[in-house]
Design goal:
145 residues; alpha+beta; 26% helix
Amino acid sequence: MIKQREDGYELSTDPDRLDVGLVHHWLSTDAYWALGRSRETVERSVRGSLNFAVHDAAGSQVAYARVVTDGATFGWLCDVYVAPAHRGKGLGTWMVGAVRDHLAPYELKRVLLSTRDAHEVYSKVGFTSLPNPEHLMILSPEPRV
């Protein structure tokens, strides 16, 4: 899939256009949820996901998102990142809207995401707070006390 904006930004799901090294750099050094994530982990996560990359008019990658899904019932939107120099231009909302549209034919029952500070970005494309968060649980490698 390729989508273009009038200002020259282009969104692609073409794996050959994805700069995994850049994605690793962004996530491991600047994304609060992935600080210190290893290159190997990023590579494995990319291989197991639907990947979305935004490029500027010059062809440089400036944003990234991925979806983990079974393609039938469930999806998890994660690692949504826009490079600092390109923030404030609506790229995050545009990219997440394109992800939503790309997933629509799958007719997934549920697409989840987690955010600490970007609720307004996601609400613009239809995400809402969980109606019953107490129904969700987590299995984590860290011991819980």
